[in-house]
Write a sequence for this structure.
């Protein structure tokens, strides 16, 4: 930020010089008219004389009037240099502030706790990160400079005008307070009109968006005419509101033009009168006519500047709201050189999102390094929450969890996450090529053969090969739409290539058929290396060979043990197993249900 | 998607395409008079701009030089009158341009929207909603802006330039030629820079949309990024984008920062030439002081219209891409239209007899979905379609709805080829319930009324009662007036499905088409949906892509579809007895449902 402040100081300084050079040329023209072309004597201090001495020219006479022209061009060259520097520096400052803001927001959004994402709406977040940043950027790049320029202009122009002729200076500025008040009041007043126009644009595009996403329903009910009427209403409202705004703006610019013409007219008429009087020279009059133009333009913009200032502060506030959210604590024990071995112990662990409702209660079990554990249970019983505790996406609120004997809460989040591969229920793929999506599972850049192997284990390799662009196929809006099962398998390949000591499948085999699931499981087992595997499953086929099955009900462990044990105990597991292995009795069952009807 | 790529690259050296622009201008047709008037007022504005320096000259030559006060007051009043005239011009031209701008964009949107209501299903299958939104919003805005304000700048710029040039040439030919000598170079530089700057801004916009997408991805994928410890890597990639954004924005700003002083220097050269040669002229007594000052003003003023004109031409080239995209959208021919000579719809209601006669169907050439498909359905019977995904169930339904038409062969409804019915009338006889219910924003009652626009409140309530949606609606705080937010997020999927069923039943369609939802809803809602479907199906020909056993069992006829063929057909008992494909499917589904109901049981 310090660098940017320096840039702004530089930009403002450049504006000061730019303004000086801008204001010098009417003075040069004035002296040229009065003392070169005309016969007035040069005053004690003459800008023309000083400048001509600077460029080494002798005293300018009527014969060397070209020197005046040359001085004008040189002045505008200098002015150009400073205009350029101002443009360059202020752009650099505002653009790099915008860049920092974007980077900071992005990093922040990556580093907030998981809770954050359920509390904010994604559309709102994106709006803050994009349009609000843009509003601030625009203000910084255009208005800050504009305000600086206006103030400097006034600061420089007023003394010049007063020194030229105090009375005339007063005449040149007489309507300024009026124009200023008018500009400010007007923009304050039409704020609401702006807002209405903005809102009606929103309404219109909402109807449009809804129509396009629901086009199938529209067709199904043949409601095209109805929809056209609905859209037409919004479209008309939008047109009328914007037109109303433009009409008001037209009035504003017309009126402020009138004020400005009155001011220039006043200068011309009064100036002419005093020139005839001899109080002013012709050159001075011409200078005043030019200066008045310089003076009026920035003042006319004041109302707008103030509106933009207001908007910028609102936006800045909205951005700050995100940046004030606290971040995940990334501190804690870590040992980058060694992998954990994967012993997991839950001891009376409990978790609740808020004070009231416990999600997990009194969970206790042990998983030995290298074991495969299957967790089953009804929807909402807390299976996913349990899985999310391990990579510290959420922190347990009661009891303890030990990983290799170390309290999980004291292990650094980054470290433990590197040690755990988790495939989420609804896997997320990045909008990159398939190969890059798998590759990024591993920190050290894996080679092609390694990637192919991982996707073979995940039973997706052959399918990828059938795609037109194979592994280079892009994911997301600009690429293919993958089915849920394909996404899951790519996410599995991504977790496999990570080769973590603990691997968690959070219901991520659900979109796959039994055969594919079995293939993946067998491939995983036959793969070298030992890892603790936790599978949250709906199908019990996964559970048959597990070292342990945990049944969760209502946030508590209701049963645990090996498959053989559990099918002999009364409880949910046994009931599930009976259902899934139901002998084919459907004809009878069906006849029953018919007779019931 | 392909259309998207075709238009992505804009060639800035490309000539303006009169065909495209004349089509765009057709949307401004009804504003022809307004636009002529607008042009006229812009000429007034330019005229005043030309006159003002003449006023200064007059003041100097008639009052100051001869030291004459007479008429100064009148002169002041004239000046004020001209000022008032100009203020009026400015207010009027802004209003006129506003009228044209808002009106043209209204017209384009209206045409676009009604085209979108006409276009065939296949169009939506391969055109992303986001793409269409961009055409209807930002492209349209850009076009109407350039039509209205481009006209303003063009007329004003040309009038001002020619006007000033003419006045100068008349006043003093030699001096005018000298001052104007910088114009060609200035015009050339302006044009070059405006194109450069616009190109940079295009780059900025492109990068900007990538940044938005990145934010979206960063938030959507945040949890995944955490588990993969990708935060730093993501930030690294993101910083590349913001770095690019910085570079291109900065480049655009620097280009402007070079361009502006260049223009100023050139215009100052004009002024300098005026003072050099004009000054010498005054000394020699050839020209008056007033004339000199007037030339000085004109020389300083001349660069503004040049700059503006260069900008407008560059923007026109840039906007041409938007124009082409919109014209393409509006000129897209729907694939399914009424055949010529189809008059008013038949008076009697459809009975609902449906026949497929040797129907062949393919989405893309060479990728056959249905081959020589035949099917007869009696009015009032219910048909369940079962079979694996990709077997052709959805295609059959799309064909019946005439979302697509057979590639060859024909579909008869009530013994008449359905291409002989008016499309919209035909489709209004179908009730279609989709797998994922779509509700519109508005209240529940409005959503149900969508099925029958003139339905009374009582009719709506009894429709809701028929599908057993009344109970849960009554339990909501605002009952039937509960607002359904965009996409209907405040209701559960099951509840939304019930509302969509009420909407379907109130339309009282002759033929019902349903794609049953697979997503699991709680057991109770599932039961009400099931009941609702039974109510709905009664007495109508219905086609259901069925997933639930109860739906399947209750159907009059079950069709097992595989690879575009009916491999088994009959009622439940017959098919179970056959011990074939249906038997397997049924058993599989039976187990799934049992396990599902156990796992989603209430806690």
């Amino acid at each position: 930020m310090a660098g940017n402040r320096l840039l702004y100081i530089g930009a403002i300084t450049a504006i000061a010089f730019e303004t000086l050079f801008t204001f010098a040329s009417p003075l040069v023209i004035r002296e040229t008219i009065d003392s070169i072309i005309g016969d007035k004597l040069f005053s004690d201090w003459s800008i023309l004389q000083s400048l001509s001495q600077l460029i080494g020219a002798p005293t300018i006479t009527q014969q060397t009037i070209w020197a005046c022209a040359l001085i004008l061009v040189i002045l505008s060259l200098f002015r150009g240099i400073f205009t350029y520097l101002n443009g360059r520096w202020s752009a650099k400052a505002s653009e790099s502030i915008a860049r920092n803001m974007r980077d900071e927001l992005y990093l922040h959004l990556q580093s907030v706790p998981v809770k954050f994402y359920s509390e904010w709406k994604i559309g709102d977040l994106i709006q803050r990160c994009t349009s609000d940043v843009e509003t601030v950027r625009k203000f910084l790049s255009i208005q800050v400079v504009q305000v600086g320029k206006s103030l400097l202009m006034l600061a420089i122009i007023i003394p010049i005008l007063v020194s030229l002729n105090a009375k005339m200076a007063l005449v040149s500025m007489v309507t300024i307070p009026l124009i200023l008040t008018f500009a400010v009041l007007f923009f304050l007043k039409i704020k609401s009109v702006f807002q209405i126009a903005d809102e009606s644009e929103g309404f219109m595009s909402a109807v449009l968006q809804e129509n396009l996403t629901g086009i199938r329903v529209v067709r199904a009910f043949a409601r095209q005419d109805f929809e056209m009427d609905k859209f037409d209403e919004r479209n008309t409202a939008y047109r009328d509101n914007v037109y109303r705004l433009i009409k008001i703006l037209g009035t504003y610019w017309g009126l402020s033009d009138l004020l400005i013409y009155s001011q220039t007219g006043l200068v011309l008429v009064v100036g002419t009168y005093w020139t005839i009087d001899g109080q002013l020279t012709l050159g001075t009059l011409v200078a005043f006519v030019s200066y008045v133009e310089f003076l009026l333009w920035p003042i006319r913009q004041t109302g707008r500047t103030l509106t933009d200032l207001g908007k910028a502060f609102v936006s800045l506030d909205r951005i700050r709201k995100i940046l004030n959210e606290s971040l995940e604590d990334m501190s804690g024990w870590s040992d980058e050189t060694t992998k954990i071995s994967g012993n997991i112990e839950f001891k009376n662990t409990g978790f609740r999102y808020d004070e009231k409702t416990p999600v997990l209660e009194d969970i206790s079990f042990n998983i030995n390094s290298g074991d495969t554990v299957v967790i089953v249970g009804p929807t909402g019983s807390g299976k996913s929450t349990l899985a999310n505790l391990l990579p510290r996406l959420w922190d347990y609120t009661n009891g303890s969890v030990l990983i290799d004997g170390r309290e999980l809460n004291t292990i650094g989040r980054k470290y433990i996450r590197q040690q755990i591969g988790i495939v989420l229920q609804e896997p997320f793929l990045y909008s990159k090529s398939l190969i890059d999506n798998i590759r990024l599972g591993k920190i050290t850049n894996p080679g092609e053969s390694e990637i192919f192997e991982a996707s073979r284990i995940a039973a997706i390799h052959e399918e990828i090969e059938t795609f037109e662009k194979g592994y280079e196929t892009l994911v997301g809006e600009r690429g293919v739409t993958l089915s849920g099962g394909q996404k899951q398998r790519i996410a599995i390949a991504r977790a496999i290539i990570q080769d973590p000591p603990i691997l968690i499948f959070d219901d991520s085999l659900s979109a796959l058929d039994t055969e594919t699931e079995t293939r993946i499981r067998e491939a995983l087992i036959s793969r070298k290396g030992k890892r603790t595997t936790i599978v949250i499953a709906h199908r019990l086929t996964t559970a048959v060979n597990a070292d342990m099955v945990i049944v969760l009900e209502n946030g508590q462990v209701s049963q645990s043990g090996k498959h053989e044990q559990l099918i002999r105990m009364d409880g949910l597991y046994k009931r599930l197993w009976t259902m899934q292995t139901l002998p084919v009795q459907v004809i009878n069952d069906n006849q029953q249900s018919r007779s019931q009807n | 998607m392909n259309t998207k790529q075709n238009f992505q690259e804009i060639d800035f050296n490309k000539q303006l395409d009169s065909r495209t622009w004349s089509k765009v201008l057709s949307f401004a047709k009804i504003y022809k008079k307004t636009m002529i008037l607008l042009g006229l007022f812009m000429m007034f504005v330019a005229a005043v701009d030309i006159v003002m320096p003449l006023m200064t000259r007059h003041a100097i030559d008639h009052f100051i030089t001869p030291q004459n006060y007479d008429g100064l007051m009148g002169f002041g009043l004239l000046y004020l009158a001209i000022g008032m005239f100009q203020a009026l011009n400015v207010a009027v031209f802004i209003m006129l341009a506003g009228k044209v701008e808002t009106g043209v964009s209204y017209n384009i949107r209206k045409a676009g929207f009604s085209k979108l209501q006409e276009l065939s299903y296949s169009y939506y299958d391969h055109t992303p909603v986001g793409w269409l939104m961009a055409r209807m919003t930002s492209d349209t805005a850009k076009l109407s802006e350039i039509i209205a304000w481009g006209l303003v700048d063009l007329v004003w710029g040309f009038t001002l330039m020619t006007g000033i040039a003419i006045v100068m040439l008349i006043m003093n030919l030699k001096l005018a030629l000298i001052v104007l000598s910088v114009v060609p170079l200035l015009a050339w530089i302006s044009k070059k820079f405006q194109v450069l700057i616009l190109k940079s801004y295009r780059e900025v916009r492109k990068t900007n949309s990538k940044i938005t997408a990145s934010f979206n991805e960063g938030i959507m994928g945040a949890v995944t990024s955490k588990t993969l410890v990708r935060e730093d890597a993501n930030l690294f990639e993101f910083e590349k984008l913001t770095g690019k954004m910085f570079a291109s924005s900065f480049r655009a700003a620097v280009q402007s920062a070079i361009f502006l002083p260049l223009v100023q220097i050139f215009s100052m050269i004009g002024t300098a030439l005026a003072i050099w040669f004009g000054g010498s002229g005054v000394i020699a007594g050839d020209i008056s002081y007033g004339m000199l000052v007037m030339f000085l003003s004109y020389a300083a003023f001349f660069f503004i219209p040049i700059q503006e004109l260069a900008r407008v031409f560059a923007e026109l080239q840039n906007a041409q891409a938007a124009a082409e995209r919109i014209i393409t959208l509006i000129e897209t021919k729907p694939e399914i239209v009424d055949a010529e000579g189809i008059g008013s719809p038949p008076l009697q209601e459809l009975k609902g007899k449906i026949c497929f006669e040797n129907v062949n169907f393919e989405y893309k050439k060479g990728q056959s979905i249905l081959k020589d498909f035949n099917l007869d359905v009696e009015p009032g019977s219910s048909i369940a379609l079962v079979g694996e995904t990709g077997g052709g169930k959805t295609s059959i339904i799309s064909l019946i709805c005439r979302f697509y038409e057979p590639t060859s062969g024909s579909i008869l409804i009530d013994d008449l080829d359905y291409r002989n019915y008016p499309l919209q009338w035909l489709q209004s006889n179908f009730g279609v319930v989709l797998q994922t219910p779509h509700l519109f924003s508005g209240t529940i009652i409005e959503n149900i009324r969508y099925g029958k626009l003139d339905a009374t409140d009582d009719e709506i309530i009894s429709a809701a009662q028929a599908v057993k949606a009344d109970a849960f609606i009554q339990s909501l705080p605002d009952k039937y007036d509960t607002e359904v937010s965009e996409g209907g997020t405040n209701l559960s999927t099951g509840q939304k499905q019930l509302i969509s069923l009420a909407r379907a039943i109130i339309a009282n369609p002759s033929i019902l088409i349903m794609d049953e939802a697979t997503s699991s809803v709680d057991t109770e809602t599932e039961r009400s949906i099931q009941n609702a479907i039974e109510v709905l199906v009664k007495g109508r020909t219905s086609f259901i892509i069925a997933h639930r056993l109860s739906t399947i069992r209750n159907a009059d006829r079950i069709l097992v579809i595989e690879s575009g063929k009916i491999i088994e057909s009959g009622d439940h008992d017959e098919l179970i007895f056959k011990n074939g494909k249906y038997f397997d499917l049924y058993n599989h589904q039976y187990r799934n449902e049992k396990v599902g109901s156990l796992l989603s049981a209430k806690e």
User: Anything to note?
Assistant: The domain at 344-596 of chain A is CATH 3.40.50.300 (Rossmann fold).
